């Protein structure tokens, strides 16, 4: 899953949310510098990623993209699933998406003293383009894919993937809606088990 989902799946715990955001930015050696609750959020991030990668619906979406995007197919699926989370937001949250996005930027900025430089730069990107909110439209997804394509180590063609999103939107949405309630349940249990 990508950033919108990770933030939503943290529940209302601020430090858990911070750790879940940092999951892709911190190395294990840096965990010693973070509070136990933030470390737990990093662990939740990795648990979400592992659960997602193994889920049948997610794998089905990945396989649709694999012929064209090979090793980037799971990355694209993560981003597409944030698009469908934003599109179906009212199914999973009572808080309006724009309000949630602004709340997350504020929360993350408040805690950025513990962020590595890359996490700070990415937060600036998220906020300046209101990415969390704009995951819900194809222009926002295109902006994210353009950036990822530029950073890829070789010609990934990720910037072309919106074509597949449009072509198979109904299939991806069906798979996402079958998958995400399972992930929500998994996260609720994980958080309870790690209190």
From TrEMBL:
A Gene Ontology biological process term: fatty acid biosynthetic process
Pfam family of the protein (one): ACP_PD
Protein origin, superkingdom: Bacteria
GO molecular function annotation: [acyl-carrier-protein] phosphodiesterase activity
Signal peptide: none
InterPro entries the record matches: ACP_PD
Keyword vocabulary terms for this entry: Hydrolase, Lipid biosynthesis, Lipid metabolism
Protein name stated in the entry: DUF479 domain-containing protein
């Amino acid at each position: 899953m990508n950033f919108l989902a990770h933030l939503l799946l943290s529940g209302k715990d601020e430090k858990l949310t911070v750790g879940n955001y940092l999951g892709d930015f911190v190395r294990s050696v840096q965990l010693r510098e973070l509070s136990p609750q933030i470390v737990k959020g990093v662990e939740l991030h990795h648990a979400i990623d592992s659960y997602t990668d193994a889920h049948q619906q997610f794998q089905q979406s990945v396989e649709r993209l694999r012929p064209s995007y090979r090793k980037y197919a799971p990355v694209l699926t993560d981003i597409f699933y944030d698009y469908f989370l934003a599109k179906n937001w009212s199914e999973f949250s009572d808080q309006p998406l724009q309000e949630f996005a602004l709340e997350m930027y504020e929360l993350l900025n408040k805690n950025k003293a513990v962020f590595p430089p890359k996490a700070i730069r990415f937060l600036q990107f998220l906020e300046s383009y209101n990415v969390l909110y704009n995951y819900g439209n194809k222009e926002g997804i295109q902006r994210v894919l353009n950036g990822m394509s530029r950073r890829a180590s070789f010609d990934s063609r990720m910037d072309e993937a919106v074509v597949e999103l449009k072509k198979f939107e109904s299939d991806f949405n069906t798979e996402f809606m079958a998958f995400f309630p399972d992930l929500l349940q998994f996260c609720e249990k994980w958080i309870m088990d790690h209190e």
